[in-house]
Amino acid sequence: MAYTKIIVIRGRLDKCLSYAANEEKTYLETAVDYALDRGKTERVCYETAINCGRDTAYQDMMQTARRWGKQNRVRKGYHVIQSFHPGEVTPEQAHTIGVELAQRLLGGRYEVVVATHLDRAHLHNHVVFNAVSFVDGKMYRDTFRDYYEGIRGVSDALCCEHGLSIIEPSEAAVPQGQYQAQRHGRTTLRDVVRRDVDEAIRRSYSYADFLRELRRMGYQVKSAANVKHTAVRPTDGQRFIRLDSLGDGYDEAAIRGRIKAAPQPVQLPRKIYRIRQRPMQKKPLSYFQRLYLYYLYLLGSPRRKVYRTSPTLRREVLKLDRYQAQFRYLRTNRIETRQQLTMQRDALQAEMDALTEQRRQLYLARRRGGTGLDVDIAAYTDRLRVLRREWRQCCCIETDAQRIEQQLTAQREQEISEKGGREHGCRQRSR
């Protein structure tokens, strides 16, 4: 199952070529008898240059751009990544498919470098080509239609010819951000809007009540006789979202039917049950930890409903998973103040610097002919990956904590202002 994507190169084309043609990623070592004789090890490189030299690819591409007077164009080249399902292809087969993809896609009109990376469980090809044709100097066109009819279409055809599986296209295209959020179980902006629409339908007795309820929730509503599709936009949103794009049951006719079919709210008598239990002794939370816990409470985790908060806080629901992870990190590492957070970040930075230097020494030793160092280098790399992730977490907490305090302060000021307005209105009516 091949997955493809294309990236426009607007910066350093030479860096992209260097990354694609990285010997550490493209060499395959097949040991005939590793334990007995290291010298019998066969090294196979999966790099192919088309219409240019393998070692002079960047110079050839720049010479072509200068020859046609397009060296100052923003688009320097393109970078196509073709990934395969783990265990589905061999390195030879993956590289062959990558070369055939470049030949069929570009038709011998562009300089291309094809490199197959073997450092991951999923083998993947990097196809880097010049944006200027060396034949006639025309620029390569990149459109949404070219991707499905060109790059992805050719890649899927090659996979079918080699007996590989492909990703079947869905009936309706899903935006990449929404797809990634659904894949990882995160809440999207459309999920928040859909939830608010459902709540507005539950509270309404007519379609006009429904629109008023949406405005009361903080949405800007676009609905009129000359408006074909009803759309809403949060107070701090960038664009309108059509209600009929939220899925089945959210167009105007379906909403009207749901309002008519909705049961009338029934007030049931409340019965209070009291459970006698022994109170648990817990360590009190610090101010820094309570700040995050209260923010999570406002966002709807674990009990409060989202629609009761302001539109700004409802947008923050999209970042709920990140805030929960940050709160767990503070509790796990017993970080109670900003000073402790800064000390934790500095300690991580010092450890990363030390491990980086030690790994650099191992790289130098390997270049001098040292053997048996790959395992140690991999261990240092894995440890550095964990430390960098933790260091980035500390930096995010420092940035988010300041913003959270500002938003909570604004939320409290808004509540005080609304409470004062209601009290003033009550006094006016009593007179």
The radius of gyration is 30 Å
Number of domains: 3
Mean pLDDT comes to 77
* N-to-C SSE string, H for helix and E for strand: EHHEEEHEHEEHHHHEEEHHHHHH
Number of helices, counting only DSSP H or I runs of 4 residues or more: 14
CATH secondary-structure class of the largest domain: Alpha Beta
Beta content comes to 5-15%
Overall number of strands: 10
Assembly state (oligomeric): single chain
What can be said about the biggest beta sheet? Answer: 5 strands, antiparallel
Helix content percent band: 40-55%
Spatial ordering of strands, largest sheet = 1-5-7-6-4
CATH architecture of the largest domain: 2-Layer Sandwich
CATH fold-level topology of the largest domain = BirA Bifunctional Protein, domain 2
How many angstroms does the end-to-end distance come to?
Answer: 75 Å
Shape: extended
Uncertain regions: pLDDT < 50 for 5+ in a row? Answer: 26-43, 302-307
The computed structural class is: alpha+beta
Explain the layout of strands and helices.
Layout: E1 3-9, H1 13-20, H2 23-26, E2 27-30, E3 42-45, E4 47-50, H3 57-67, E5 77-83, H4 91-106, E6 112-117, E7 124-130, H5 144-161, H6 176-183, H7 189-203, H8 207-216, E8 219-222, E9 231-234, E10 241-242, H9 252-261, H10 287-298, H11 311-316, H12 320-332, H13 338-367, H14 374-430
Antiparallel strand pairs: 1-5, 2-3, 4-6, 5-7, 6-7, 8-9, 9-10
Helix pairs in contact: 4-5, 7-8, 10-12, 10-14, 13-14
Question: Can you give a write-up of this model?
Answer:
This protein folds into 3 domains: 3-161, BirA Bifunctional Protein, domain 2; 189-261, no CATH class; 287-430, no CATH class. It contains 14 helices and 10 strands. It has helices at 13-20, 23-26, 57-67, 91-106, 144-161, 176-183, 189-203, 207-216, 252-261, 287-298, 311-316, 320-332, 338-367, 374-430, and strands at 3-9, 27-30, 42-45, 47-50, 77-83, 112-117, 124-130, 219-222, 231-234, 241-242. Strands 1-5-7-6-4 form a 5-stranded antiparallel beta sheet, sandwiched between helices. Helix 13 packs antiparallel against helix 14 (374-430). The longest helix has 57 residues, at 374-430. The protein is extended, with a radius of gyration of 30 Å.
